[in-house]
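Any chance you'd type out a single protein's sequence alongside its tokenized fold?
>
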Amino acid sequence: MNQLRDNLKNLGLSPNHIFQQVKDAISEDLAGGQDLTSVATITQSQVSTADFTTRASGVVSGLHVVAAVLEYCGVNHYEVLVDEGAKVSAGKVLITAQGNTQKILLAERTALNFLSHLSGISTLTNQWVSEISGTKCQIRDTRKTTPGLRMLEKFAVRMGGGVNHRLSLSQAALIKDNHIMAAGSISDAFNAIKKMYPDKSIEIEVDSIDQLKEAITLKPDLILLDNMSTNQCSEAVSITNGLVKLEASGGIAITNAKAYAVTGVDYLAIGSLTHSAPALDIGLDFRKGK
């Protein structure tokens, strides 16, 4: 357990948070009872060896979350065979586990749920990153994450080669259209935040070149170009002339990502990385005779 804690910390993950998520997931699966199928069909003394194996190629992440699931379920003999963020082909064994058969089966679905979901995010992120290779632009995630899984989903984005936007509402300020409407203007919203939180990063969302010009005068840390065309993004890059970092969001698909990236913006904010990534097909297979 101590080694697992160190591994999670080295990956930028909170061990206590991961262990609590694993506990909650297993508790949800058992719902106060026991695994009826396994208890009825498998003796308490049976021991097996099982492999977590990819059924499709992709970028894997969440391997050490699987380790946490295994350990929580009482399966302490396992080996993680690939690195987090590794590109793998179909048929690759990612983790081998040996132990009580009932305990391995208890861990199976929860472990695969985490692993397949996170690897799906990493795989999709890597596809976006590859699409804009050769530009200075970076792929960033958003707060469009699954409630309770933000830390892990943003970790999966990093493993896919993307970078993280703010992790929480309290980490940095993002002035959006509704804030502008409620405060009265971009300047009013910006100045209010600057007065109350002078040391916090501030990003301003704009949806027109006129708003961009107002935002630039305030010298924010970042400006978000909302639903702007590639031509508008190019114009924005020219106007800011490197004074403020720019992020494009809205109306961006993987098919036009490169066109946005070459405009010179610093980031593409892609919500689909976390809210629409398909799970990577991964399975758990017992070895015959073991």
